[in-house]
Amino acid sequence: MIDEAITDLLIAAERGDSAALESLFPLVYDSLRTLARRQRRAWQGNLTLNTTALVHEAYLKLVNQERIAATSRTHFFAVAATAMRHILCNYARDRRRLKRGGDADHVSLDDAADVAPDLRSVVSDEDADALSALDDALRRLALADPRQARIVECRFFAGLSIEETAQALGISPATVKRDWTFARAWLYREIQLELRG
Amino acid sequence: MNDRHIGVPQSETTVASDRIAALFEQALACSTDERERFLMKACGGDRALYAELTSLLAAHELASGYFEQLADRCVTPAMDAITSQSPDDGLLARVQLAMGNGYVVERELSGGGMSRVFLADELRLGRKVVVKVLRERMAPGLSAERFQHEIQLAAKLQHPHIVPVLSANAAEGLLYFTMPYVVGETLRHRLVRDGALPLNDAIAIWRDVLEALAHAHAAGVVHRDIKPENILLSADGRSAVVADFGIARAIDSAEHSEVRSGFVLGTPAYMAPEQLRGEASANHRVDLYAAGLVMYEMLAGKTAFGALTSRETMTEHVAPAPQSLFRQDVPHSLAARVMQCLEKDPTNRPESANEILATLADPSARRSQPFSRRARVGMAAGSLALVAAMTALVHGRSRPAAADSVGPVGRELLPRLPAVQQRRTKHVPTPEAYELYRRGQYEARLKEHSLTTAIAYYSRAVAADSEFAPAYAALAQEYALLTAGAGGLEYRRGMDSARAFAQRAIELDDSLPEAYEARAFVKLLYDFDWKGVDTDVERAAALNPYYTRQIYVRENMLIWRGQFADAVDEIRRELVSDPLSASTRGEFARARFVAGDFVGALATLDTAQTLETGQDLPRLHLTRGEIYLSQGRYSDARHEFQRMLEASPDPTSRAFLAITAARSGDHAGAEQWLRDLLSRRTTGRSSAFLVALAYAGLHDKDQAFAWLDSAYADRSLRPLIMDPTFAELRGDPRFGALLRRIGLGQ
Q1: Residue B324 and residue B38: Cα distance in Å, rounded?
Q2: CA distance B723 to chain A (A)
């Protein structure tokens, strides 16, 4: 499962090659999706592992540790955060569309078909709605302030700490903390309005 | 007025301004008792602001726990589900068993087509080795003896560009061999990442591969499986070593009681026709064929036979000739050598690797031909049709900048600008103005073709509050975008309005990056005031480093100046912060195209198209069309420009349809498009610049330069003229004169 291409790109990104960083996303996204698709074991309800530990695990599975500086991890985490957002939110969105029914034939169910059988036991209908509303709100937030949206991805979807998020995005921990507090309140309000309205 | 469209947010406040965020933070820092007093004072009668802040503060109380629990319920389990999948099918344990106590097999590295690769510690020598286990070859009845015997021959090879085989064995039903652990990437990695390689790198790598082949062939070893996956690169990417010598033959002999005469085993995509047919006469020239394919791929960024499945590849190799497609910086003699390697009939290929090496050593094969320096400048030159670019980038989708839609709003507004009073504190907009402004932002960002609607909202916002700086800045931006594609009077009016609005915004509030960006845009397109562009762009960046719109102004500035590589870098940086934007990626493709990297540009365009479906970005069609045009794929090019025409009223597509018609020999069609552009120009729906482009396409340089003069006069000149498509013009002294006239060039 170790992916040397991902490792190569992370190394290049660490050297400041920003093109490598941008090439990374599709690879990480595909790897995570492939893993999800291949996943056979239904989730057993184990809440002892936290998201942070799991992103670390994904990192261990995908990246050749020997070739890489420890600091490159944060780059991987930031990319994985965006990938996780897409996997989860696409799934949630497709599921909502299906639930509403009627227009199933014009909905692309690529992601749902790939991931749904495994995530169905994981995410409740209610939470799928919440995730979908969160995704919409995040899009709007990104228009106004892309940095805040990236911080939310790192904190929420990858479970990164304030410090890790700061390192991954190259900003100060104080900024992360301030933006996260504000974005969280703003998003919460948007989600509640969407779910109730 | 609360019209609800898809995607319109539920709450009244769409986006949080910095000011709200700052007040929110201060309010949180207050004790509960103080908070109310603070809010009253800070909002000073602005009820909308007060309501916004109290609702956010209330949300804050619940938000923290909510997101924690939501993450626990969804994100964590999903991540768990994703990562708990174990790829280990027990092969590692079997490899360990097969290799015995001398080794500790640590973990699996990547998997190749024919093998799975593990990393092991060789305990006796205290070194790391790579173990390659041959896939699908784990059947009983393998002859370890024959395998080892065959591989011994290859193991004797000692050459700086050959990765030695350390040991080989067949045990536990596995066929495997070990080689040194080489840190670095394979040529395949590099090709996937970078596409085509710089000429000097490609030549250096090819030389190393050929030297390895020459040595092995002299020792009687044919590789039979030369491909980018087997070529490992040094850290600087300029030297190479070749792995897996003799492996294909060894596998073959392990599986069959007698060594067969043909060389059927290999990777179909890189196998010579005679190898595919299993001909007895197959010899070392199968390696030269594969080496030719590898060189072709390094130069072209794609395989000689395109993306085909194995079966199709096999037929192709035996039947049609490869496409002869080379970059202009590749000397003819080298191109001819590579094509000679790809001859179907082995006797038509070069005699030996040494024969090719002799050509490479010949300086004439490496020196560019007299004309190619100019050709290269032409290839590297190019530009962005700024208008559509800015619109697409700003709004995240295509936003036509057509004169057709220029409304009367600006003309009415312009004379009404009242005198400015300098303020010390930030102006608090009236709730009505703020609401209108916010609606304008929505219109501009989220809906199709709503530039004029957005302008209408912003206009009403400044009518409701004449000191609301952000609304003026937004007006400036939208006006610049709306009129940039126009010609004539509308264009002049639009740009004058944009400049005036930007100026006004800056006078009211000198901390808005978007105001400086809008002014820079006008200076770039209309004033040709390069110094002013730099100053405003720097100012915008200093005000907010995360404000990225101005990067496109800078990029186009760089293209005008001929700094194409810098322009590519500029967009690359932007991509990091916005990796999912199809329009940003489209710009990256455009910059690569302008810099002469057609292959890379096409690859980036492919990615861009997978990112946002349902949105037809005209800019993607423009770049793709121009690339096809340069490759002589006229009907493909026409298709792209037609789609651009359908997706956007920007008349630029019409000029390119004229060029395509002219180049494909359809002179009547070209004339017709030209007449169309000329007649549209009289109504301000095309420009002198576009007419000039069409004439350039018709190879009428005199007319082209005459019209470029008019384009200079009416300010419709665009950096698009720097595109490779118009390379022909740049060789002319009149081009240099034109650049000097707008303050560029020597």
Answers
A1: 74
A2: 23
pLDDT in tens, B164-216: 888 888 777 778 888 888 777 788 878 877 778 888 899 999 999 999 999 99
Q: Which of B11, B85, B107 sits opposite A189 (nearest CB)?
A: B11
Residue-wise DSSP of B228-279: GGGEEE-TTSS-EEE--TTHHHHHHHHHSSS--SS---S-GGG--HHHHTT-
pLDDT at B413: 33
Whether A175 contacts chain B with CB within 8 A: no
Query: Are A154 and A165 spatial neighbours (Cβ–Cβ below 8 Å)?
Result: yes
User: What DSSP state is assigned to residue B426?
Assistant: P
Q: What is the DSSP string of B478-539?
A: HHHHHHTT--HHHHHHHHHHHHHHHHHHHHH-TT-HHHHHHHHHHIIIII--HHHHHHHHHH
Structural domain boundaries in chain A: 2-196
How many cross-chain Cβ pairs, A to B, lie less than 8 Å apart? 194
Interchain CB distance below 8 Å, A32 and B82? yes
**CB B573: neighbour CB atoms within 10 A?**
15
Residue of chain B whose alpha carbon sits nearest to that of A186: B56
DSSP structure string for B307-349: S--HHHHHHHHHSSPPP----TTS-HHHHHHHHHHT-SSGGGS
Does A20 touch chain B if contact means CB atoms closer than 8 Å? yes
Selected residues 98-117 of chain A with any CB under 8 Å from a CB in chain B: none
The pLDDT, as a whole number, for residue B613 is 47
- Of A122 and A108, the one with more pLDDT: A122
Asked if residue B258 has pLDDT above 80, the reply is no
Name the strands in the sheet holding B174-180, side by side, starting at the edge strand that comes first in the sequence.
Answer: B103-111, B115-122, B127-134, B174-180, B167-171
The pLDDT tens digits of the residues spanning A28-49 come to: 777 776 655 443 332 333 333 3
Confidence bin at A69 (pLDDT 50/70/90): low
Q: Is the CA virtual torsion B719, B722, B724, B727 positive or negative?
A: positive
For the stretch A136-155, pLDDT in tens is 999 888 888 889 999 999 88
Cα–Cα distance between B484 and B521 in angstroms, integer?
10
Please list the residues that pair with B180 across neighbouring strands: B129
Residues of B in contact with A35 (CB under 8 A): 82-83, 85
**d(Cα A129, Cα A137) in Å, to the nearest integer?**
12
Across the interface, which of B11, B16, B64 has its CB nearest the CB of A193?
B11
- Contact criterion met (CB < 8 Å) for B81 and A122: yes
ipTM of the complex: 0.79
Other C-beta atoms closer than 10 Å to the C-beta of B566 total: 16
Give pLDDT, residue B693. Answer: 93
Q: Is the Cβ pair A35, B14 closer than 8 Å? A: no
pLDDT digits (tens, 9 = 90+) for B247-256: 777 776 666 5
Q: Which residue of B has its CA nearest to A42?
A: B81
Is B536 among the residues known to form the active site?
no
pLDDT reported for residue A177: 93
